[in-house]
Design goal:
Number of helices of chain A: 13
Helix content of chain A: over 70%
Chains: A mainly alpha (about 300), B mainly alpha (about 350), C alpha/beta (about 525)
CATH topology of chain B: ABC transporter involved in vitamin B12 uptake, BtuC
Order of helices and strands of chain B: EHHHHHHHHHHHHHE
Shape of chain B: globular
Number of strands of chain B: 2
Radius of gyration of chain A: 19 Å
Distance between the termini of chain A: 69 Å
Order of helices and strands of chain A: HHHHHHHHHHHHH
Oligomer: heterotrimer
Number of domains of chain B: 1
Strand content of chain A: under 5%
Structural class of chain A: mainly alpha
Strand order of the largest sheet of chain B: 1-2
Radius of gyration of chain B: 22 Å
Number of strands of chain A: 0
Chain lengths: ~300, ~350, ~525
């Protein structure tokens, strides 16, 4: 019995963490390139509604997932156009992106509220998935979960080991220097922003297709913002962001289970993820390790090459 | 022939004030195609959406009711935005302000007196301020981004309100609906015009907007806020404390959001319910930007946003336009505004361009 | 050695470049022979930096032609420039603080080998040219001189045929300059051409085979620096009879006005410098200089003196005996200490605001431009107009935005804003950084007059020549510690250079030994 519930809880934690991991990994790449996109919440919602609508309409979760990534990237493209080409303020544009994404996703999804959706296929690895305890936790998840971890690993490898990753980091450190060396600042920032959008879209799709699974207005309920906080928490390092995402997934699931155990209003527990975010940000910023000093030096600074 | 983009040495004032008009025009044009895409008659829907709310006197009075809280909140937010203090949790501060004011109204439910409403206003302001003090403290003490903390606290605020109206503050005679008792007359904002829902809060809002204008245009503290926002190093050099500016901006915008919450519960709502507003705290961000962070511009843009709310409701009834269209309109407007701002900072010229070298 | 009769390595033909209303380069033509060290000489704003950015492909010329080994080429990006064999060492280095030497070098190479092989090549090349470097270190741990080595090695790895050096010595100690010149001569002997940008005449005489002089975006002369006198080159550069700044008579009164007493400050910046035990005194009417290579704590010291950072120990700074170390910038100003920070735009002035509004930054209380919290905008306008008149600032008027002024005019306005307040103490950082000779002379004269009236002035500058002319005494800051003060009249460049290189720790010990001895005797 106990073993079973540990298995269930662990699997649920992984599931709850996955949308955060997608979105935070995407935003990490964006920020390492020196761009601050606060529109993660809006891009996740667009991913969630598009993924859901396309899956319901076509019956194909694969198409749905692809559409979700595309929708997130499309919104990110609008952000990139405004901030990188038209030099708009990144904070204001990010807020606009979120407000717009909330509105547009609600509009597009108004016909899909309450509809059922075919479940995502579980990836069944013969042998591994049948292992006791570990099997269901680690190998009984659906394909997007594995994709999210692979994405983190690939991001870590890309940033650390490839020339393109090094270029991206350099551009986040000093766009001015990078430009004078002939590194493609604007192009790299566009690509990073699009990647961040696609990843946020995938995170949203996981929510509406696997985690809940259904579509509801504003269903991300702040996960986009938590993902932004996770990037700070992970001090802009992919594996630390992964650890942070799983920690938050844990808090989310624990508060759900704790609701039955204590005689307190359910809302008290629902506050926990938000309060935990604030607490964690404070600890990271105040701590002696001074995590915020890892922030890319040019984060959020506009850059326009003179021609 | 090429287009040549050149930065302007001074932002063009004419263009700065023209861009909101251009942004509105582009939004309306996009709305036309959006409605077409949704299978609606675009011209008719746009008419219901934008014109209908302004056709009657009662329609204007309703616009005032909606614009009031938007302008009140945006006046505070705009001052913060000028100082680069990004309070995006006004919705939460509004909620806590409403909780404070509602607490007073319920505590003195059996009393009558002219002192109750002012006390509620005070409690509302204090509630909003206290809630805004959390991000202010974390920002000034630990450099935690006020963007993330103020937003997270918005979710928490909704849950706090939920605890109260589902729990201890629930109306004992309310058939278990999650709402408090209706406030007594002493706890309601007096109407300024019979037959409308316009209340005293609208007068207060006007006074606040004018006050904000004087502060920003004429006082040293207004100058301080602008310098902190434009050039933090120059502010330090001038002896202006960034931390005090952060505290001032957050407490001011939090207090005004709390006051807006007070007038919502003491005005059109008349009690505490789980969802107090259709997102005034967020829409006020758009109002602030669209009004160019200028108190008088904010009044104009507040009315425009009020039209989008009331017009959205009319079009919902008349054309079955989904309610979410209002949000899309608002987001789109902010997008276009930010894009059009490019024109005030850069000049686009047709230029003959010759080959650099053969 | 270079041979001027052969096909030039680089030839520019009628290069022009405009930025909106400003013509930065106007029909510039000259050529650089293989192995030649070619000086590009000119004042700030003469168009040197724009020109070399065009050669390196960072900017595109509006008109004109570039010939490389006699063939016309289009250099539309730094990649193309590097492919031709052009390397460039930037004045403000194009380095990434949080990344390693190895990564920084790899980023500047177009076909970087794998990092291990590159690390080996870095060590080989840096040894060959006497530029020792550790590929694994992060840039922020390096001194300014070492950072320049990274840039140079990055260029050398590509076997350049032309090396562009933009004001390379402005950040080096005199000894480091010597070492750099050895490397550059070695490169020249190997056939590499060098385009050497500077406004320091002695250096050009020491190093260069040929000089092209720019003024106002045009070529105004060419000469052989070995033959031409420094004075002649300076007049070409400035375009007017050189106004010789004469040193003032030394101040006799040493009644201390500003006392800095064992000032300690930990930096709050990620890669900042801690100030350690800084002490000095400045007398009534004295001008005190603080020399040093950039990045040795000058910014931190300027901020600590101005009150932008407050100190725990009030007595660490005393003005006429009163402790002010704990006070903020405006409170210190009220006590009589005004300051001019190094950075003009965004620090000393807000570019988006009018000149009248900019006076409020420092003069709102001292000059009564605000009362009971309300701005007296008419008074501010009048004060701005007075500064514009007294300091001959070229500006549209008090309502012009600060951003519309040229660097020299804005600096005159900023200095004027403080000088007209007749402070007891003035702290001024880089008073003439990046301004033309006319404005520099005006600023120096204003400082002299202010000192005459009794103000104690602290000048923090990287320009040693400026300090030698302007100051009565000076001290050198290195890694956050300040050397003992020396009389400027008796100072030698070598002595100051050693101090800039960080040798004063040893020297202090030597002096103490000496004092001990004298006590014994």
């Amino acid at each position: 019995m106990i073993a079973l519930s540990i298995v269930n809880i662990s699997a649920a934690v992984i599931s709850a963490s996955t949308p955060l991991l997608f979105a935070a990994t995407g935003e990490l790449v964006v920020e390492r390139a020196g761009v601050l996109n606060l529109g993660v919440e809006g891009m996740m919602l667009m991913g969630a509604v598009t993924g859901f609508a396309v899956t319901v309409s076509t019956g194909s979760p694969i198409l749905g997932i692809l559409a979700a990534a595309t929708a997130g990237a499309a919104l990110a493209l609008a952000f990139a156009l405004l901030t990188l080409t038209l030099m708009a303020n990144q904070v204001a544009t990010g807020l606009a992106l979120t407000i717009f994404g909330i509105g547009l996703s609600a509009l597009l999804g108004s016909g899909f509220v309450g509809q059922p959706v075919p479940a995502l296929p579980k990836l069944h690895l013969s042998g591994l998935s049948d292992l006791p305890v570990l099997g269901p936790i680690l190998f009984g998840q659906d394909a997007l979960v594995y994709l999210s971890v692979c994405l983190t690993a690939a991001t870590a490898w890309f940033l650390k080991r490839t020339h393109a990753g090094m270029t991206l980091r350099a551009i986040g450190e000093s766009a001015e220097s990078a430009h004078s060396l002939g590194l493609p600042v604007i192009r790299t920032r566009y690509l990073a922003t699009l990647f961040g959008g696609a990843a946020a879209g995938l995170g949203g799709a996981f929510l509406s297709l696997s985690y809940t699974p259904m579509w509801m207005e504003g269903m991300t309920s702040g996960r986009g913002w938590i993902a932004l906080a996770l990037v700070v928490f992970g001090s802009w390092r992919p594996w630390r962001v992964l650890a942070g995402a799983y920690l938050f997934g844990g808090v989310t699931i624990l508060q759900l289970h704790a609701q039955g155990a204590f005689h307190l209003p359910a809302q008290v527990f629902s506050m926990l993820p938000y309060l935990a975010t604030i607490a964690v940000l404070t600890i990271i910023s105040a701590g002696p390790w001074r995590g915020r000093f890892n922030a890319p030096a040019d984060l959020g600074k506009p850059f326009r090459p003179s021609v | 022939m090429w287009f040549k983009v050149e930065p302007r040495q001074e932002a063009s004032q004419a263009v700065i004030y023209a861009t909101p008009v251009l942004a509105v025009a582009l939004t309306v044009a996009s709305g036309y195609f959006l409605f077409l895409f949704l299978g609606l008659a675009p011209a008719k829907t746009l008419y219901h959406f934008l014109i209908s709310p302004t056709l009657t006197f009662y329609g204007w009075s309703e616009l005032c009711v909606k614009a009031g809280p938007l302008v009140l909140i945006a006046s505070g937010l705009a001052i913060g935005f000028r100082a680069n203090v990004w309070n995006i949790g006004a919705e939460g501060q509004l909620t806590l302000g409403a909780v404070g004011a509602g607490g007073i109204a319920l505590a003195f439910w059996n009393e009558t007196g002219l002192w109750i409403l002012p006390l509620m206003c005070l409690a509302g302001i204090v509630g909003g301020m206290l809630y805004a003090a959390i991000p202010a403290f974390l920002k000034t003490r630990y450099e935690v981004s006020e963007i993330l903390t103020s937003l997270m606290l918005t979710y928490v605020a909704t849950l706090i309100l939920g605890i109260l109206v589902y729990g201890p503050w629930r109306d004992p005679l309310g058939f278990n609906f999650p709402q408090t008792r209706m406030f007594t007359d002493s706890a309601l904002a007096p109407l300024i015009l019979e037959g409308t829902r316009m209340h005293i809060g609208i007068v207060v809002t006007l006074a606040v907007a004018v006050g904000a204008w004087v502060v920003m245009a004429r006082t040293v503290i207004g100058f301080q806020i602008k310098v902190v926002g434009l050039a933090p190093a120059a502010a330090r050099f001038a002896g202006f404390s960034r931390n005090r500016t952060v505290w001032f901006s957050l407490l001011l915008s939090g207090g005004l959001a709390g006051l807006a919450g007070t007038f919502e519960v003491a005005g059109p709502i008349g009690q505490l319910v789980p969802h107090l507003t259709p997102g005034y705290g967020f829409t006020a961000i758009i109002v602030a930007f669209l009004g160019r962070l200028h108190p008088l511009g904010i009044i104009a843009s507040g009315f425009l946003m009020a039209i989008s709310y009331n017009g959205g409701e009319i079009a919902q009834v008349e054309d079955r336009l989904p309610q979410a269209a209002t949000g899309v309109f608002q987001g789109m407007l902010l997008f276009y505004l930010l894009a059009c701002d490019f024109l005030s900072r850069y000049r686009i010229r047709m230029a003959q361009r010759e080959a650099t070298s053969s | 050695m270079h041979d001027e009769r052969r096909t030039p390595r680089l030839a520019l033909h009628e290069i022009s470049k405009r930025f909106q209303t400003v013509v930065a380069n106007d029909g510039i033509s000259f050529s650089v022979a293989p192995g030649q060290v070619h000086a590009l000489l000119g004042e700030n704003g003469a168009g040197k930096s724009t020109l070399v950015k065009i050669i390196y492909g960072v900017l595109q010329a509006d008109e004109g032609q570039i010939l490389w080994d006699g063939q016309p080429v289009a250099i539309d990006s730094p990649h193309r420039a590097r492919a031709q064999g052009i390397g460039m060492v930037f004045q403000h280095f194009s380095l990434f603080e949080a990344m390693t030497v190895l990564e920084n070098i790899a980023l500047g190479l177009d076909n970087a080998p794998d990092l291990k092989a590159l690390a080996d090549r870095i060590v080989t090349v840096s040894q060959k040219y006497g530029l020792p470097l550790d590929p694994g270190r992060e840039i922020h741990t390096l001194s300014v001189g070492e950072r320049q080595r990274v840039e140079i090695v990055r260029c050398l790895l590509q076997n350049p045929k032309l090396l562009i050096m933009d004001e390379p010595t402005s950040v080096l100690t005199p000894q480091e300059v010597e070492r750099l010149f050895v490397t550059l001569r070695q490169l020249s002997d190997e056939g590499c051409s060098i385009l050497y940008i500077s406004h320091k005449l002695q250096e050009i005489k020491d190093l260069c085979h040929h000089a092209t002089v720019l003024r106002g975006g045009r070529v105004v002369g060419e000469c052989d620096p070995a033959v031409e006198t420094a004075r002649g080159m300076a007049q070409l550069m400035i375009g007017a009879e050189l106004k010789q700044l004469t040193r003032r008579a030394a101040v006799t009164s040493r009644e201390p006005r500003l006392i800095v007493d064992t000032l300690e400050l930990r930096s709050n910046q990620p890669f900042g410098i801690d100030l350690k035990c800084i002490s000095f005194e400045v007398g009534v009417g004295e001008i005190f200089g603080i020399a040093g290579v950039a990045g040795n704590g000058q910014n931190e010291l300027a901020q600590a003196l101005a009150g932008e950072v407050t100190l725990r120990q009030p007595s660490a700074i005393r003005l006429d005996g009163k402790p002010i170390g704990h006070l903020g910038a405006e409170k210190r100003r009220m006590k009589g200490l005004c300051s001019v920070p190094e950075e003009r735009t965004g620090h000393a002035a807000v570019p988006e605001m009018s000149l009248a509004t900019n006076t409020l930054l420092t003069a709102r209380n001292r000059m009564g431009l605000a009362a009971q919290g309300f701005i007296q905008i008419r008074d501010a306008r009048n004060y701005a107009a007075r500064i514009i008149r007294d300091f001959a600032v070229k500006a549209g008027g008090p309502n012009s935005n600060a951003a519309t002024l040229s660097g020299g005019n804005l600096q005159k306005f900023i200095v004027g804003r403080e000088v007209l307040q007749s402070p007891e103490v003035l702290v001024i950082a880089q008073p003439t950084w990046g301004v033309d000779a006319g404005a520099a002379a005006a600023i120096h004269e204003a400082l002299f007059r202010l000192a005459q009236s009794g103000t104690a002035i602290v000048v923090i500058s990287q320009d040693l020549d400026e300090l030698l002319v302007v100051t009565d005494r000076l001290a050198v800051i290195n890694m956050g510690t300040l050397s003992p003060a020396i009389d400027t009249a008796e100072a030698s460049i070598e002595q100051i250079g050693l101090l800039m290189g960080g040798l004063h720790g040893m020297e202090t010990e030597a002096r103490l030994d000496h004092e001990d001895m004298s006590n014994v005797v």
